[in-house]
Amino acid sequence: LLDTIVDAASGLRHELALPPATDLPADLVAPEGPRVASRAGSRGRSADDPALLDELLRQPWAHLLVDGYNVTKTGYPDLTLAEQRRRLVDGLGRVAAGTGAEVTCCFDGQPGQAPPSTQARGVRVLFSVGEIADDLLRRLVAAEPAGRVLVVVTSDQAVARDVEARGAWVVPSATLVARLQHL
Fold first, then answer.
1. Of 39, 53, 167, 181, which sits most exposed with the smallest number of CB within 10 A?
2. By three-state DSSP, how is residue 151 classified?
3. How many angstroms separate the CA atoms of 168 and 97, rounded?
4. Which domains does the chain have, with CATH numbers?
5. How far is CA 38 from CA 43, 103, 117, 170, in A?
6. In sequence order, what DSSP letters do the residues of 27-74 get, joined into one string?
7. What is the pLDDT along the chain (183 residues), one digit of tens a residue?
């Protein structure tokens, strides 16, 4: 029961964009040293912990955005591109079914490229046309309303920095691969 209350309070604090409750007044006045800009999840989970991904996706109205080839090259580099896409999209379908989160997977594409022949229910698959998937992810995050829980899966540091600046949570590709292996 206590964990449920703590999680509810944490979610409400995040939704209302309130400052962390761990800062005491003296902490705010003390001289600042170099800080690493990272956001820890509930109970101090790191971004490498698949449990943080589960926790974020259980939030109401969560949206998971995936840098497709970034994940597949991490998890399934020996497969063909079509097999990589199919395996990732199938796994994301299981994530969508288990969490109720909106799921969008972005792949680099070419004009006229057809979407994967087997699409999983609950997974939106987009191919970038005239731009790279990284820029498509940035545009998708920018289009979302403020306060919505956005989780972007990528190991691309430039994309991570840009989407975090817009309030999205960033989870490394290896974390999603680890999560998909347990489904």
1. 181
2. strand
3. 22
4. 2-40 (no CATH), 50-181 (3.40.50)
5. 14, 24, 38, 10
6. HHHSPP---------GGG--TT-HHHHHHHHTSTT-EEEEEHHHHHHH
7. 777 887 787 777 767 766 656 655 555 565 555 444 455 544 456 777 778 888 889 899 999 999 999 999 999 999 999 999 999 999 999 999 999 999 999 999 865 555 555 567 889 999 988 899 999 999 999 999 988 999 999 999 999 999 999 999 999 999 999 999 876
